[in-house]
Amino acid sequence: MKTFVSLALAGVASAITQNDIKFMDHLAKHGKGYDTISEFNLRAAIFAKADARIAKSNANPEHTFTLGHNKFSDWTDAELEKINGSRIPKEDEELPTLNMEYATGNQAADEDLVFAASYAIKYPSSKDWRSTGAVTGIKDQG
């Protein structure tokens, strides 16, 4: 009997992936649990996609930032949209435009613009916003 239990545990242990361990750590860290196996599996799949996205971004040597998981790493896009107050446009959705008449006060203009910028302003090639105090430390944004 002890041999069977040992073999069963060894089989289960070999089936557990590194991503499973990360997901379980995530659940423990944020005090999460799910009512059904199907929801658990759905959240694990969402977490795995987020983990892959994070790993890909962090492996990019051009990025000057590091991403990490937070309590939202297992949320769907629809759930995130509800709390963010924003909406990501669909690929085929037309972006809203800015009417030139409204932007300039010129009643004669009827041209629509997506973005208008002043080319008279000289901007530096780079800016460290941390040095001006515009960026604060990492916060829980939920």
Topology:
Blueprint: H1 2-15, H2 18-30, H3 37-59, H4 77-84, E1 98-99, H5 100-104, E2 112-113
Antiparallel strand pairs: 1-2
How would you describe what is shown here?
The chain has 142 residues and is an all-alpha fold. It has 5 helices and 2 strands. It has a domain of 75 residues: Orthogonal Bundle (Helix Hairpins), CATH 1.10.287.2250. 44% of the residues lie in helices and 3% in strands. The radius of gyration is 24 Å and the shape is extended. The N and C termini lie far apart (49 Å). The N terminus is likely disordered.
List how many beta strands DSSP finds.
2
Cα distance spanning the termini: 49 Å
Structural classification: mainly alpha
Fraction in beta strands: under 5%
In short:
This protein is mainly α and 142 residues long. The chain contains 5 helices and 2 strands.
List keywords for this structure.
single chain; 142 residues; mainly alpha; Helix Hairpins; 5 helices; 2 strands; extended
